[in-house]
Amino acid sequence: MNTLTERAARVSSRHPWRVLLIWVVVVVAAVGTIGTLLESALEGDIAITSDVESKRAEKLLAEGFPAPRPEEDVTEVVVVRSQRGTVDGAAFEQSVQRLASELRTAGATNVISFYASGNERLVSADRDATQLLVGLGPEADEEAVKPLVALVQALDEKPGIDAAMTGEWTADADFGQLSQDDLRTGELFFGGPAALVILLLVFGAVVAGLMPLLLAIVAIVVALALTALVGQQFPLSVFTVNMLTGMGLALGIDYSLFILSRFREERAGGREKLDAIAAAASTASRAVLFSGIAFVLAMTGMLLVPSTILRSLAAGAILVAAVSIVAALTLLPAVLSLLGDRVNALRIPYFGRAAVGASESPFWSRIVRGVMRRPALSLALAAGLLVAAALPALTLAVGSAGPSTLPDRFASKQGFLLLNEEFPSGGVEPVEIAVSGDVGSSEAKTAIDKLEAEADRQPIFGEPAVATNEAGDLARITLPIGGDSIGEQATTAVRNLRADVVPKAFAGVNAEVAVGGATAEEIDYHDTMSSWLPLVFVFVLGLSFILLTIAFRSIVVAAKAIVMNLLSVGAAYGLLVLVFVEGVGNELFGFEQADSVEAWVPLFLFSVLFGLSMDYQVFLLSRIRERYSRTGDNDAAVAFGVGSTARLITGAALIIIAVFWGFAMGDLIMFQQMGFGVAIALLIDATIVRSVLVPATMKLLGKRNWYLPSWLRWLPDVHVEGTEEPPREVRPATGPG
Fold it and tell me: What percent of the chain has pLDDT over 70?
């Protein structure tokens, strides 16, 4: 690893213009790739790829009813309400019929109205509203629904009529738009500028502060191009861009921050420019490479989960992490070779003087020495605080964001509200129950009747419809469900169907029953996330333990790091529940209150936090071990390691917090939860864990920190902390270049 990082840095610093030219060509090619391929790469659906009950129901129904019904093409519903009359009024009927015709002209392949079909289910109980069921065909996408929404909104503006549209593609278009809005306003207008301000304060110079941000942007552009290429074979979610941008800013800045800081430190210590670059490569770059590998492996845990959304997010994070590592090991040394000491140009008053050549931070050193004077008390208080913060996580429940969680300004939310008001037991995504067997038998008919009767007792369900295929071996029970089809009330009702109603109704009947539909799919999605969470925990924890043991040749260091990270994650889970579910302080932050935490967030949060905190863990422990290997004094090594890295780790953490707080500032509740979770956990990790738990435990354990059993002595010694050589020439680093 030392040979790789130092050789890459030496080659790049000796041939900087060649390296720079290569990266310029790569970026230009990346921009072209993004423009031509990225949009088509982000067309993946959010789905579970494993065999679950909802998929079995879908497969049975597709095989048993090969000829689709007109209603099966329906994905959207338009609700039109008269403010002064009923659906029987001639003027109102004319308006609805005209809208139906316009929808067909605008691209709808199927429009079912009360006036054409005579279906009374399409009329509200008080007869002041009616539904139009709309299908967009098999080639539909988010763009296809936009002209239809515009037609409905035009009708809504006419006096005496309320009109709104909701459904699968309407909601997808709104979620996609909101994702882009949040990316632009949160990450670009808040996260990026905030990161720049922090960088300027950390480095104390404009040029040094701009470099990590520029390298992060390069990494994001190249990674987006790779995403566009990967997405041609494996379509990715549109949310991949949000993930990639956020992680690109976080990782790209962090890696550059650590290496650039070490370069400035070596120059301040008297090394020649190229030797300082090489020294930074043999220490900080090596830690960056190792922590980057650890981050990628942590993200690999998400790839194991049979979920397209998690795999998309993991793919974005892995690609941008890989590019960030390569840029830090090659592009950064080339730029440093060209700039030399001009990297310190345009210093900021006060901060510039404090940042250049700084060693131990007096502020953090005082805190660490105070902790090490009373290590047991400090450990008990800090650990107790984190455990208390984690307690609300015991009630953590997962769910999903449906149209009901969107801001009111979006079309699908307006349609959802109007539909729920006028048709509380109706919806465009009914429950579809497949009954496979001799469905013509008296036992099967009795069971179906029991199921219908039980469903009729629950107000959330509408009037069921039963159909039998020509072969008589499959029945389809269509059960309309009101409200948000993936909301808590709907999922609770369908869970009850699966767990209680269906088993009781079909007890003793020789038939396979599978409950499908959008709500059932959501339940299977939640259950998949929950069942895979402990498996990902074991995978990531196991890899982290192995990697840290190899890196620092100590099972004690590895075990402590895992326990501390678990405390950070647990506290983040608890605070997530406290703020978003219990509603404690959510209005203060401008967050929505929800019935549950988004299903993918706990698993995502765990993987990301372990990956990101590994950056700080490796960087901090490498400095401690570097000093310990040189002096053999554990206490002095801990004090120096924490004191000398605290400024950088705090700055790096604040940058990532700023980036992910950009997510939290948006309107999309799933990203609010993700951004808040990452931000609060990293704040805990960079303060309580690094400044209290690490020095307290290392003080208490002393030389036992570096214990490695004799039967593990065969492990490779990778020396993540580097092997420093004395500077060849000691002189002040004041001249340019």
Answer: 92
Q: Which residue has the tokens 């994070």?
A: 317
- Among 38-47, 112-121, 353-362, name the most confident range: 112-121
Q: How far is the C-alpha of 324 from the C-alpha of 331, rounded, in Å?
A: 10
Q: What would the pLDDT profile of 402-451 be if each residue is shown by its tens digit?
A: 777 778 888 888 888 888 888 876 666 788 999 998 888 889 999 999 99
Q: Output the CA angle 576-582-588, nearest 5 degrees.
A: 75
Report pLDDT digits (tens) over 141-180: 777 888 999 999 999 999 999 999 988 888 888 887 887 7
Contacts 24+ apart (CB under 8 A), 339-343: 339/207, 339/737, 340/273, 340/735, 340/736, 340/737, 341/267, 341/273, 341/733, 341/734, 341/735, 341/736, 341/737, 342/207, 342/736, 342/737, 343/205, 343/207, 343/208, 343/211, 343/260, 343/263, 343/264
Q: Residue 733: is its pLDDT beyond 80?
A: no
Judged by DSSP in three states, 66 sits in: coil
Which pair of structure tokens corresponds to residue 377? 């008390």
Strands 597-598 and 398-399, how do they pair? parallel
The 8-class DSSP code of residue 637 comes to H
The encoded tokens of residue 710 equal 């004799």
Q: Are 678 and 604 in contact (CB under 8 A)?
A: no
- Whole-angstrom distance, CA of residue 101 vs CA of residue 81: 18
**What are 234-283's pLDDT values in tens digits?**
888 887 887 888 888 888 888 888 888 888 888 888 889 999 998 888 88
Q: What are the Cα distances from residue 514, in Å, to 431, 451, 498, 502, 508?
A: 11, 13, 8, 9, 16
Q: What is the mean pLDDT of residues 70-94?
A: 84
Average pLDDT score over residue span 513-541: 88
Secondary structure of residue 483 in the 3-state scheme: coil
283, 724 Cβ separation under 8 angstroms: yes
Closest listed residue to residue 236, CA positions, set 313, 304, 178, 180? 313
pLDDT surpasses 60 at 540: yes
d(CA 731, CA 715): 40
What tokens does 106 get? 């605008």
Residue 357: closest CA among 209, 204, 210, 212:
204
Domains of the chain with CATH codes: 1-41+205-347 (1.20.1640.10), 67-172 (3.30.70.1320), 429-540 (3.30.70.100), 553-591+601-706 (no CATH)
Residue bearing tokens 């004191």: 643
- 3-state secondary structure string across 401-426: CCHHHCCCCCHHHHHHHHHHHHCCCC
First to last CA, the chain: 28
Which residues, 6+ apart, have CB-to-CB distance to 131 below 8 Å? 77, 78, 79, 80, 114, 122, 123, 419, 423, 426
Q: Cα separation of 565 and 297, whole Å?
A: 16
Tell me which of 412-421, 634-643, 693-702, 720-729 is least confident.
720-729
Cβ 438 vs Cβ 512: under 8 Å:
no
Q: Is 87 helix (H, G, I), strand (E, B) or coil?
A: coil
Helix or strand run (H / E) with residue 514: strand 511-517
Q: Which two tokens stand for residue 465?
A: 């419809």
DSSP element (H, E) containing 466: strand 465-468
- Cβ–Cβ < 8 Å for 133, 111: yes
Q: In what order do the strands lie in the sheet with 465-468?
A: 465-468, 474-479, 431-437, 511-517
